[in-house]
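User: Please predict the structure of the protein below. I'd like the answer in structure-token form so I can feed it into my own downstream comparison script.

Assistant: Understood. Taking the following sequence of 1008 residues as input:
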Amino acid sequence: MSSNKKYWKSVEELNENSSIVETLRNNEFVEEIPTDEFLGDAASLASSNTTRRDFLKYVGFSTAAATLAACEGPVHKSIPYVVQPEEIIPGIADYYATSFSDGFDFANILVKTREGRPIKVENNKIEGAHFHANARVHASVLSLYDSLRLKTSKIAGKDASWTEANAKIKASVAEAKAKGGKVVVLTNTSASPSTDRLIAQFVAANANAKHVVYDAVSSSEALDAFQAVYGERALADYDFSKANVIVSIGADFLGDWQGGGFDAGYAQGRVPQNGKMSRHFQFEANMTLSGAAADKRVPMTVSAQKQALVQIYNVVTGSSVGAAKDEAVAKAAQQLKAAGSKGVLVCGIDDKNAQLLVLAINRALGSEAFNTGNTRQIRKGNNADVKQLIADMKAGAVHTLIMNGVNPVYSLPNGKEFAEALKKVKLSATFSMKEDETALASSVAVATPHYLESWGDVSIVKGSYAITQPTIRPLFDTVQFQDALLSWNGSTQSYYDYIRSSYAGAKTWNQLVHDGVEFTTLASGAGAGADFNTAAAVLANAKSTGMELVLYTKTGMGDGQQANNPWLQEFPDPITRASWDNYVTVSKSDAEALGLENWNVANGGLDGSLATLKVGNVTLENVPVMIQPGQAKGTVGLALGYGRKAAMKEEMQVGVNAYTLYNNFSNVQSVSLTKESGSHEFACVQLQKTLMGRGDIIKETSLEIFNTKDAAEWNIMPVVSLDHKEVAASSVDLWESFDRSIGHHFNLSIDLNACTGCGACVIACHAENNVPVVGKSEVRRSRDMHWLRIDRYYSSETTFEGDNKTKAASDGLMDSISTLRGMEDASENPQVAFQPVMCQHCNHAPCETVCPVAATSHGRQGQNQMAYNRCVGTRYCANNCPYKVRRFNWFLYNNNDEFNYHMNDDLGRMVLNPDVNARSRGVMEKCSMCIQMTQKTILDAKRDGRVIKDGEFQTACSNACTSGAMVFGDVNDKESHVAKLAEDKRAYHLLEHIGTKPNVVYHVKVRN
């Protein structure tokens, strides 16, 4: 029975009309606390000075309570639907099959929407969906909510309606036709059959019109070679799962080479099955993801790579073209030839002759991995046509220039020259999502929708046909380029009607829209002959002309189209582990010769020298220098995609524009490098470069040992002393164990052989869990909020096994100290290993025992849980975590004036996942093993009255992993994939000797 007894706090409360009582009821604190005088002003706070005694006197109960109140999240009232749309059920996610296509990246994907808002990209795993989402595709959903998008069309820089812009463009095209002036349509590779047809119709209707395809990062030389042999301007596709021996000459096929997407097939052959795995040789200048994954990596200048390619050509085809000999190349060539149809060679050299030899070698091998039937349609740029267009513009021969999906003023090496030539064009119209450099220089800028607001189609490889469908109504007054083409072609159809009426595939239209893609396997073509020996002779004469600059695209930034995306800017580069920057990478020996340095400073940050690069007549001044283990001597690397200014938030205007050095669309340039005064501050999230022989963190072995010796010898389990006897560490416990055999118990398995370090999982985790962006300054202070990190380790010797021997050979305290100090430095050509690390969800978690308020506790399903409302930010848990995976939320990253990223404007916040709260300052946060996803799966099965199938349980990271490195599931289901992986002889736990019993399982890395 409840009590109605009333208690009085003071005599004053007996007076019902007391103004004092009313004031106290409405005021938590008796008097206003003047904390804003110094807490609200950054300058005053920085200059304030007080003794500890005064501070403690000031911070009494009232001030402490005020501070705690300030840590609470703001309350926002929601507005309910007046008329609820039929297709939307509040709280239930909808998924749409669609495709991503921006001219550089292509993927078949699913888009998750909540209450009509796209919030996350996932992989479409239906049969026939070959291209999965990389880090940039996962981040593309945030670009939809970019507050700097072009919101309406513009004429001469002033807002205009589409009707006005369209009339102006039509009039210019008509005038050009009447006067015989040239009309040029300049686009990126759309890979869209319907768009290509519409452009062809437009060109046919205007005899003076021409279509030019321009890709910012060119594959034109490879296209020219393939066309010469196979009669089709396309690229061969490769299935690395069918190869036992892989040789790569300068091709980062696990990165962006020829469109990427090869990692899934590659990983299948890299996981030892039945005692076998593929063998991978990599010859390259820059350290790349492919080089990091290779069994044998040889650093080489590009001129030496050309000689190596000729040497391999001679061995495989029996030719005798004169070329320099190299022992490592000879070994690779012999194994490649011996592999026959189970061998494959790929090459990233921007040279037609080199690409011709690639075709000749793979044909001679009869390579099963080499596919010339389902060719790639995602690179169509033609360098010769682009050069002719610029010449015509400079001569005043182009009357009307219509551009879509390109930004040549930024991405051409002679971008300024292109901008000047635009002034000689009577009318230039740019269809763009952003008022970028080219849109600003054009007569007319037409605002186009994001791909998530658009209809479209795409044929990524021949034989595939995928649909792009809108997942949200257009946010702004935008027009699709294809609708404009239909208008110019005199059609009244909408683009949707045009696609639907022209579709003639095997599926019904509704089935196609539901599945997103259909696919037909096509047989490889025989191809024609070519003068391969002449091509080899030209390559054999290649000589170095001094220091070589090798331009490349970063895993996070790509060609720079999404440079205003804060998720990608803060994404740590898998190799250097630096974010918010591009920099020139140099080898240690070249750095010493030039006096270039990197050093760590007191706050844990990394600093580096500055250098000036000169290529021809173009100079890039004060470029930061990163000393990169594995960089070939005599070469330097620099990433494209940075240095943008237009339509960019100030925080994202970082780096230098390397496109200015991209002469003749070649990624290799002769360069001079000189040191400058001053230094640069990097935001690098990992300063410990090597393992220093700590073989219990990343366990490695060779395929020979794996096949011939017992697991106890190569997957050594730690032991501890108990009663003066050595016993297995896992058998000794400080904690009491509980029965976890009832219900679900989740494990995450991570295979170090399959992980390529691509980082798609990192961005997927951001999207799913509302992980905040903190900016360069905070990352530099080690305050990044990534729930998932991918540690990258180099070997100190040439191999990790060499590190172990060096460490074991040390004798005595002083010798051990000097040995370990020496092992902090990476080898000039190290082996590399990647290790994804998140909260290990320990069954015996040290964080849980030290939390004074029980904010972190263990769930029955194995997840270490966080109750944010309980957390008071003591950070005891972070100090007690051996894996260092907990992140303290230092500031309010949303709704403030300091962090100008997506969480600080209404548009950007539309990407937030309502299933996960946006954390406030003063709390600890970390990986939750996506508990909202596991609970959703359980509830769905309960509603349907069925048993959960293996594979239904997913986390954001396991769902995003295309290589199969991450597998998530219920280990209490003994038939599940993850349960079998947990019992595999390669399975081990991170830092197993400390007895935390993690629910994350790693698998020993095996090298062939």
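That's the full token string. The chain has five domains: 1-70, 154-218+381-504, 239-376, 545-684, 700-1007.
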